[in-house]
Each structure stands twice: as C-alpha cells, then as structure tokens.
C-alpha cells in the first residue's frame, strides 16, 4: 500500500477549522522552525481510506484465532472500554487535589483488594507500566528488604532455564548476578540442582508457575521452602496466572512478591506498544518498601501514602490508571466464580487442542498441561526441512495468528499454543484441522510450506535487515 505521503498532492486539504475568535499572537522568531513542517496534503476521503487500509492489514483477536502463547492475547470485553471512558475517569488530572478525585482513589483501593485476594498478597502497587517493569520493581523490593536487615551479601537471583528472558535481564538490571537451574526430565525444576544453588548469597528465586512448558510444578511448596530456608525470598512471574485465577494463589504457594500483567490476564488491551500495567503485589514483610503513591483509606477519606522505607517512584504518578480500571471492571463483571471458570476453560481449551494435535506432532511434555502446551517440530525439520517458523508462517494463510515460536529455549523447534478461554469448540476444531493439514502437507510438499505465506500483504521480509536497519520515516526527495 502507499504511504500517506505518497498520497499527498500539493494544495489539497481536508481541514475545516472555525475562524479564530481570539487575537493572533505571532510565534517569536527564536522558536520558529527553519523550514515548514512536512505534512501530507490529502483530502478527507483519502485520509479515511488510508487508515481503513491500514486497519485491514492488522490482525487482532477480533479478526480470528489468536493462540499467542506466553502472552495471553485474550479478548478485551467492550464493557471494560465503556467504564474506562467515563468522563469522571478520563477528565481527571494527576495533580488535582485529593478531595476532588476520591472516586478514582476508591477504584485503586478496590482493585488492590481484589487482586490481593486473587494472588494471596497483602499489598499492591500499580506504578509499574509493564510486566518486565513489574519484575524490576519486585526485585528492588527484595533488594531493599535484604539491605534493611544488613544482609548485603545476598547478591544472587536463581532463575530456572525455562524462565522468560526478562527474568534474568531484570535481575541483572537490579545489580544481581543470575544463577540458572535446569529443568528435570518432567519439565519442572530440578530440586537437587536448586538445593545445590542456594546459599548465604541467595537473594531470591524467580519462577513462573505454571511454567513456560505449560506445567504446574508439583513440587512448588518444596521449591519455595528450599529458598526460604536459605534466607531468600520467592518472586512469582505472573505471566501465566490466567491458568490459575481463583484456583491457586501464589501467596499460598510460598511466594513473597508477584507481578501481574493486567494487560494479559485481566483482559486489558495488549500490543502495539501498550499501554500495559505490571502491578506488583507483596507480602507484609515487603510493604515498608513499596513505591510511592500507594492509595489507601483513612478517616478523612482516600489518600496517597508513602511507605516508610519506600524505594521511591518507578514511574511518574500512579501508574496507567485507565488500564487498572479495565482490569477492575473485568474482575467485577466475572466475580470469583467467573474468574475461576475463565481459568478452567483456558486449561480445558489447551488440553483439547493438545490431544487433537498430539497424534500428528510430538508434544514437549507428557500428560495434562495447563493453559498452554508446547509442540516440538525437531523431527519434522529433520525429515522434511520444514521448521517451526515455516509452520507458523503457513498458519497465517489459514486466517489465524501464529503461536509463539522458538520459546521456551529448552524445547527444540518449539511452537507454544495458548488458545485462552473465550474460543469455542468450533474455532478450536477449525484451528486444529488447519494445523494438522499443514503438518501433513509438510511431509508431502515441504517446498510449498517453506514458501508460505502466500495470501498476506507481504511474504517473508528480511527480518534481520528490518531489525538492524529499520526504515522508520519517509525519505523525502
């Protein structure tokens, strides 16, 4: 399609501005541009067609099946958007006097209460802007806790080999060194390796449960006990909480701090650069170190409180407020029973797809999975040359978004499938039929699969060149 600048014709316009009703004030020369701002000149119909064409090239959950595992790309209910768009929420300013935004603070306090119930935590901060930002914040809390006790020798964070890549990155950014522990043959944490890794220098453990191969670690209570007995704290990566909402709580598993991807599990918009929200919950032992601007109820009404040993602010003001509102609406709409059913349906849908696909492709782990499962196409690659990436590209031609590719790293030629809870059996069957057909076609006509996609706006771009030398703006002659 053409760029908007390629549609531009000098002198064409769609601006219909009212006459100026105030005295004109010329721009001081010092602030004036040296040359005119280069803007496209198009008619309104051209502008409308341009954005409509752009929208048609974007694939979202409203367009079709979106099984993007590890990210919980779930449906965003319209009622969330209506609530977040109420003028009383959108028309406020972060510097307004507290007494004029009591309803907004009440919403924050209510959201904290509900999320603490879901996670088994005691307090919650909404400042972090995304999941990885939440990891960073949670680790700062752990660091502040050990420092307050004079236990400054605890400099190492233990991370399983199946962890999200942001886990070791966040630990390193906080000044910790990272110790990897392997998974056992069952896909869960190797307990002997964990026992060997902990010691007086252990600050904590970062763990996702269910883990990234879709398994709920059966030894979770033993895992967190090993770390606690060594004097460390346990951090819960909430990326996979969608599998266990109102079924199992991180706080009951022995975790001391957790981040939640509100832009995943709690149905708020995700992708396209945000906005996100990586709310962080903590046990009481970490409450003294929470970031600033913690909303709380008092005798005089709702106020912002700063923790006595606060780590400070990790973001300006109070977090992405309208994202928090969407999550609050989701929790209020579903209630405890509804959230539990959502998790149960996510697990059911995942296992249904796993069982249907298993005869045609090896699954990375045996037995029942949780909300996601991982296929390994290593054998298909050896037999036909068709890779996981090829199969993912072929899925585009079938009208569905591909799943996560090549993750977790411990699974060769991995495709991670997460259908979420809102997909019907008919949709799941159609997706399974398409995937099975692709796998079979790879054996009879591998070249055809390796050349996909055939029906998308672009085929296979040079991804390395796009990453290293991106063209981010129009080049004017």
TrEMBL record:
Domain Glycine dehydrogenase C-terminal: from-to ranges: 342-442
Source taxon at top rank: Bacteria
Keywords of this entry: Oxidoreductase, Pyridoxal phosphate
Gene Ontology MF term list: glycine binding; glycine dehydrogenase (decarboxylating) activity; pyridoxal phosphate binding
Catalytic reactions of this protein: N(6)-[(R)-lipoyl]-L-lysyl-[glycine-cleavage complex H protein] + glycine + H(+) = N(6)-[(R)-S(8)-aminomethyldihydrolipoyl]-L-lysyl-[glycine-cleavage complex H protein] + CO2
Essential cofactor(s): pyridoxal 5'-phosphate
Region (Disordered), start-end ranges: 447-466
Identification of the protein by name: glycine dehydrogenase (aminomethyl-transferring)
Organism: Lawsonibacter faecis
Gene name of the record: gcvPB
């Amino acid at each position: 399609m053409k760029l908007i600048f390629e549609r531009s014709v000098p002198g064409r316009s769609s601006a219909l501005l009212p006459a100026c009703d105030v005295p004109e004030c010329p721009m001081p020369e010092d602030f004036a541009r040296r040359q005119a701002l280069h803007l496209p000149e198009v008619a309104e119909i051209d502008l409308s067609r341009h954005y409509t064409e752009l929208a048609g090239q974007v694939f979202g959950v409203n367009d079709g099946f979106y099984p993007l595992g590890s990210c919980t790309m779930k449906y965003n209910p319209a009622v969330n958007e209506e609530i977040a768009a109420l003028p009383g929420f959108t028309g406020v300013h972060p510097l307004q006097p507290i007494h004029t935004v009591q309803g907004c603070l009440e919403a924050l306090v209510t959201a904290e209460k509900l999320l603490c119930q879901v996670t088994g935590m005691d307090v919650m901060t909404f400042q972090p802007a995304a999941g990885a930002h939440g990891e960073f914040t949670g680790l700062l809390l752990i660091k502040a806790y050990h420092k307050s006790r004079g236990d400054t020798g605890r400099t190492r964070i233990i991370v399983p080999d199946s962890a999200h890549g942001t886990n070791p990155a966040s630990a390193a950014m906080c000044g910790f060194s990272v110790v990897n522990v392997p998974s056992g043959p069952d896909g869960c944490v190797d307990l002997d390796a964990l026992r060997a890794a902990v010691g007086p220098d252990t600050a904590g453990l970062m763990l996702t449960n269910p883990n990234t191969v879709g398994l709920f670690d059966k030894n979770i209570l033993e895992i967190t006990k090993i770390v606690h007995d060594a004097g460390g704290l346990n951090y819960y990566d909430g990326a996979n909480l969608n599998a266990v909402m109102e079924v199992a709580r991180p706080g009951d598993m022995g975790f001391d701090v957790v981040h939640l991807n509100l832009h995943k599990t709690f149905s708020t918009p995700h992708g396209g650069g945000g906005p996100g929200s990586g709310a962080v919950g903590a046990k009481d032992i970490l409450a003294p170190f929470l970031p600033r601007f913690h909303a709380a109820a008092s005798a005089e009404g709702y106020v912002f409180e700063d923790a006595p040993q606060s780590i400070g602010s990790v973001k300006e003001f109070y977090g992405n407020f309208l994202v928090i509102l969407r999550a609050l609406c989701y929790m209020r709409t579903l209630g405890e029973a509804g959230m539990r059913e959502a998790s149960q349906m996510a697990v059911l849908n995942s296992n249904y797809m796993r069982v249907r696909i298993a005869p045609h492709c090896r699954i990375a782990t045996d037995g029942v999975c949780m909300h996601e499962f991982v296929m390994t196409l290593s054998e298909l690659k050896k037999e036909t040359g068709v890779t996981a990436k090829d199969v993912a590209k072929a899925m585009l031609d079938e009208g569905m978004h591909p799943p996560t590719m090549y993750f977790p790293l411990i699974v060769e030629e991995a495709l991670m499938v997460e259908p979420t809870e809102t997909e019907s059996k008919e949709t799941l069957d159609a997706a399974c039929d398409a995937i099975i057909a692709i796998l079979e076609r790879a054996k009879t006509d591998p070249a055809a699969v390796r050349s996909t996609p055939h029906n998308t706006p672009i085929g296979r771009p040079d991804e390395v060149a796009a990453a290293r030398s991106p063209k981010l703006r129009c080049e004017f002659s």
